[in-house]
Amino acid sequence: MRKILIVGGGQSGLHLAHGLLTRGYDVTIMSAQSSGEVRRASPSTTQFSLPLALSSERELGLDLWSAQAPRISGARLELHPPYMPPAVLSGSFAAHGNGFGVAVDRRVKMADWLEFFEDQGGKVVIHGATLTDVDYFSRMYDLTIVAVGGGELGAVFDVDQSRLGGGHQRVITQVLVDRVEPALTDYADVVSAAQGRILIAPVLTADGPAYSVCVMGEPGGPLDGSHLRPERGRPHPGQVAEWIVGTLAREFPDVAARIQHGAPLDATAALVSRVRPHVRKPVQRLSGGAVLGMADAVVSTDPIGGQGWNLSSLCAQVYLQRIVEHGDQTFTPDWQQETFEAFWRSGGESAARLSDLLHRMWDPEAAEAMPHLTEVLFAAAQHQSVADRFIGDLADPRRYDTWLYDPESASAFLNEAAPA
Ligand SMILES: Cc1cc2nc3c(=O)[nH]c(=O)nc-3n(C[C@H](O)[C@H](O)[C@H](O)COP(=O)(O)OP(=O)(O)OC[C@H]3O[C@@H](n4cnc5c(N)ncnc54)[C@H](O)[C@@H]3O)c2cc1C
């Protein structure tokens, strides 16, 4: 039986671990936290599984929450570009997977997956691995995969300057609250402007359905909540909620009014984190053999694209398929590199390209160079078919490659979807 070690028990590592286990592999997860520690940790942002990620989780028997979690069938997008009047568009995910996504608090999802993996016969070692550990243990396994997300161990992989990552640093400030007014329907609400982005989405927590209010700003900008993060310990949910309401009251008063009466769920319900997106070289040769990086450890995208969970699921799916297809052959460094390339081609690159566009659209000069984007936004505000495509394709950003980025394709799409 082939032995696989996965360092990191998060979205991608556990997804892959379950997939391999059900196919008869001997899988060990090395996780820095036990399931109990995960349950007591702070949340990690909106945890939104878009429809395709959810479908692949379902195929592996990992969709444990859709029956209880509020469904997210689309998004209502309020755009404030500096070069055109504000636009409001609502689009549905109906064309993708089963047509809806769900957001589940990471503390519930990862802890449940880890326990489920162990119940199914998977091996779990609770240990924050060092590079020396990985080098040592990798000799005992046919393949070692490093899936540590934003963990420091990811720095073992060198940054790859040759690939477009499209990401920019963001400060994420989030709080989980018990209500927003009026309550959301089955759509998530997104407000996007040059100052940053606000996402309000229903989320399933250990205490039942709640709302995630997530503010993404540029470091040093008006939506930067870094000062709320103490040097040690966790941010205080009450202070985070108060800062979000106060800041939005100045920048986006309508949004502030919606969330001002929401109370934080509990003493751990806030998060303040700086995200530094990157693309790294996926294969690192250690003295014990080459190890393969996975998901955020090697490709982390700009959170404004909302692709993190989608992409980590996709990475797990591609790696799973490649490992199984490889049968009993050796997992050479060349095979590892080609496995990453398969992931990059099947969605990694498209997600990076989307991040790049979503960042540049707030810069008037860059936007001037892409007049077709303004046309698409105008059309989306007026034609439901365009809005459904513009928003719905977030569920599968490869689809944007066929119509959004170059003026001819965008024009052909608009002629068909929104004839004059
Ligand atoms: C602040 C922030 C905001 C985000 N916002 C969004 C969003 O709005 N929408 C979205 O879709 N995605 C978002 N993401 C991204 C999403 O959370 C990730 O893309 C996804 O979780 C990546 O999966 P992963 O398996 O690579 O890493 P993770 O899910 O982060 O898992 C990594 C695991 O490795 C463990 N670990 C770390 N170091 C070690 C070690 N040395 N030894 C053993 N275990 C270790 C960690 O404890 C963790 O359990 C955000 C991420 C961050 C950090």
TrEMBL record:
InterPro entries: FAD/NAD-bd_sf (IPR036188), StyA_sbd (IPR041654). Gene3D superfamilies: FAD/NAD(P)-binding domain. Residues 149-258 form the Styrene monooxygenase StyA putative substrate binding domain. It comes from the Bacteria. This is Styrene monooxygenase StyA putative substrate binding domain-containing protein.
